[in-house]
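Schema walkthrough. Field components (list of strings):
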Amino acid sequence: MLAAVYHGPNDIRLEERPIPNIDADEALLRVTAAGICGTDLRILHGHHRLYPPGTQRIPGHEIVGDIAAVGDGVAGLSVGQRVIVAPNAGCGHCHLCIRGDNNLCRQYQAIGVTMDGGFAEYMRIPAPMISQGNVIPTDAAADAAVSTLIEPFACVLRGQRTLQVGPGDIVLIVGAGPMGLLHLLLARLSGASRIIVSEVQPVRLVQARQGRADFAVNPQSQDLREIVMDESNGRGADVIVIAAPSHSAQQSALELAAVGGRINYFGGLPKNRPLIESDSNAIHYKELRVTGTTGCSTGDCRKAAEILEAGRIDLSPLVSHRFPLTEVLAAYETAQSQEALKTILLP
Ligand SMILES: [Zn+2]
Ligand SMILES: [Zn+2]
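Field assembly_structure (string):
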């Protein structure tokens, strides 16, 4: 089979590899679509801590495919079934796994991160993924490229669960990359009355407007604070999502938030510079709830798949580019450009 294999920083090679063997408690997936995301770009550049020097691995964790073979010991899966594979598995028995936060497990394993992923024609589905419910049947008639968005959408769902967006809320989203736009769509679905998106890249501002942001603001040339205050009758934003690695956005969120506001630091900061200066009195006197989320659990993926299946949200505008696996290098290049929203490989 054809596979895109990481060999080192900026060294992804297209290779012929044997189709993976499966054990009795595993299954084989014929990959139909796999999304390239920010994590994959971090891996490509050699900045991912779970891809240490010397690692040779197939990336790809936003995966849709058809079951191609099932081990004798596996119940509930059948050949030909269309599924998505939620990428994260925990140990299955620690307190975090038991309460459903397997993405936070200390012995966390992930497809495309700690084990071979979906940038290949076939992928082995390891036993824990099957026993922990990561294999989620999905609509075979749906566009597989769009179904790859279930995983990033699940991360956004997790992020907004802590924020409890509801009817009438004024929502500020900082960053209009694919994650920011998914936040925009979900906030709209939850009944937000005004959504303001802040973004410095002109192309992404246009995309935010196309995604029906009420205001798409460039904070370098416009006064974001004034716009937030105008649109909220002076009270500030009820909900703020920071989907960009920005120190200043994390700091100013405390000021831009309304009394009782909810904030999510959805994007991390560079690991060598994670400190910010923050006005803790703003948190105290405004009774702010400052939260953070990272990745998604298998439960989040299941919920995201249900929402998509119910037709409650249309994620198809986010798929901007599609490439066959043979053009994986061009696909990576496109995924790095500001114009691209989601770039999808179709093995
Ligand atoms: Zn991802
Ligand atoms: Zn665990």
